[in-house]
Each structure stands twice: as structure tokens, then as C-alpha cells.
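Friendly challenge for the regulars: who can give me the C-alpha cells for this chain first? No prize, just bragging rights.
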Amino acid sequence: MRQTFEGETVAEQASYGFPARMKDIYSAVVLDGASSTKLTYVNARDFDTTIPKPDTLGYNLPSYYVDYGINFELYQIPDAIYDLVLRASQYPEDLSEDTDVSDLLRKDNLIVSMATVFCLWTLREVEDAAYWGTQIVPQLYQASLAGDHSAEDWVPVARGFGGPSVPPLSGEWWKSPFVGRRVW
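First reply, four minutes later:
Bragging rights claimed.
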């Protein structure tokens, strides 16, 4: 349920609506000809505290975005038309007709089992609904999550905080606090 959405900014317009069924933004990039800028997410409360009236600070290539409700705002406000690329997750399309096909991949057993639970509750078959809801559905839910695509290529990288380099301790440092340490 991940999708790449492409669009454009409008000169001197800060607020934009999300694509239909969009759930969460993973990244947002503004393209300016041959260069691009990944937009940095800023919490709405922090943004309003720091920049209460963004249009007074001028217009330029955006570098931040604020996700709020059904819209997101760009800062700085675009001074021209830029290409905008959103990598986002989306909600599945609602099923209303018998011929509708679900967007969810490898979730058929889970959907049918949940529908069975709802049907049993409607028929007031409380014990059968409870059995399906507690014994069948959780296992299918876990199996459906295990079958989802994951970002296997991502590897976390630990980075130090910098500062002066301190050599490792040597000697019997547990006997004396002065062994192997520099004194300044």
C-alpha cells in the first residue's frame, strides 16, 4: 500500500491537500530543475511557535513541511512552480460492490475471516463469533503482517557525538583511577 505521488507546487501557495486515501508520508522531495531538496518534517505546534506568520518571511524554494489534518503546508512558501514527489502509504480502497477487488495483497483469508466474525455477530452466534475472533483471526493477522514487504535494504548506522578522542584504558584500571588516564 505504498505509492509515489507526483505533483506540482503553486507559486505563493503554502497549503496543499493530500492525495486521495493517503495515510502517512515517508518522504517529500521538491525538484528544482536538476537539483532536489528533501523536505524536513516539522511538528505543527513547533512550527507555529517558531514561525507564526510564514508569509511575512518571503518566498523561496521550500525546505520544510507541516503535516496537519487533510493538508500539508510548505515552508518557505514556493516562489515558483516546483515538482513535488511524495512517497507515502495509503489506505485500501473501500469495497462496496460484489465485483470490487481489494488492493490488499495476500490478505484474502484475513478479510474473509473478519467478515465471518461480523456475520456471526449479526446472526447472534456469540460463541462462534468469539471463537473466530480470538482463535482464527489473530493467527491470520500475524500471517498477513509477515507476508508484507519490508525495507530489507535499510541498515541503521550508529554515529558518535564527536569531541576529543580518548584512548582506551590500559593497565589495571580497576585498582587505581589514575592508571591509563590522561591528566590535564
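The chain is about 25% helix and 25% strand. The two ends are 58 Å apart (CA to CA). Your move, everyone else.
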